[in-house]
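Lab manual, section 2.4: Encoding a predicted structure.

Procedure: take the sequence of the chain (394 residues), apply the prediction step described in section 2.3, and record the output as structure tokens. A sample record is shown.
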Amino acid sequence: MSDNSKPIQPLIYTANSLRRLVEHLRSQPRFALDTESNSLYSYQGKVCLIQISTYATSHEEILDFLVDPLRLSDLSPLGELFADPSIEVVMHAADNDILMLYRSYGFRFGRVFDTQLAARILGWKQVGLAAILEKHFGIVSNKRMQRTDWGKRPLTPEQIAYAQMDTHYLLPLRDRLAEELQRRGRWEEALDAFASLTDSDPAARMRDERSFWQMRAVRDVPPEHLGVLEALWRWREQKARALDRPPFKIVNDAALVELAKLQPLTLDALAETSRLSALQVKRFGEEMLQAIRAGQQQPTPTPPDEEDRPEPMLDKAVQARYDALRRWRTELAQQRGVDADVVLPNSALLAIATHNPATLDALAALPELTAWKAANYGPQLLAVLADAAPQPTS
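Recorded output:
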């Protein structure tokens, strides 16, 4: 019996089994994909498992496979497959997996169907995969597995079952969503949204370097204490990188903010703070005190440039247009029964308000606007801009 006549085993960790899996997937119009990472257990986080579900040859059975990237030295056959626009890759909340696979392997995607994005376009109220599986398929997921360490080997039976379930139902879910999208006249909108996932450059959306300005709690720290906060944050980053642990498992943000405000200078004072455990004081106390002293000596850090912020300060005319566009979007989203960003994200509204296009062609030329949205919302958007224009004084 030839090797190709044998069933492909569900655990893929040899070059031969990966080759056979890719050959089978190339014979299918689509397959489901998900990934698991160890981001809760390492500094950077890496892909530890790639789940794939596909139909058997007869299309009467769904086959589940787990590709183990920790045991395979060459995943390029998968990368070539993902980039093939003739094969649809079905994912739930695809953006995260697309970015993770690009960062880890440089993979890009040719065509995707995002089941979460489709559900949001349809106005489904619960769009998390666990909630959808329970409501539409009667499947209750094991929530404990969401925090498991996917970087450990061997995988446990519980991990395998959980990982397989993440993709097993995506193909029938995709068909259910596609039928409803077509029935409700939202199919073209969904295709346009899916295309934006593959058209956008993942490299442009990845941060080059972490910054303490990305902390939400930074706004709670008085400006004169920001130097200490930055010094503590840099210490935590260096320690987390050295120990290969997530920064929050060294010291969480709330503790850094408390230390920046109180600025204790002795171990006893450090131990009296409310956010640090005795173990953290014992292991990292001296280093944190050094960081606090260093932060006290450095000048107050300069905030990021205004243009780097999500919503920079706008001049009066641009702000008026932006506010008018937000009101229009809110009303339309309520009419359609979807979240506001399904209509247009803030980045698109800001681009429209800033450039103030006067024609449909100028509007469609904005890279923040997809083709479908420009064609379907264009006249309304131009009308909003015209109404927001300042009226001439007599």
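Check your result against the sample. Residues 306-311 have pLDDT under 50 and may be disordered.
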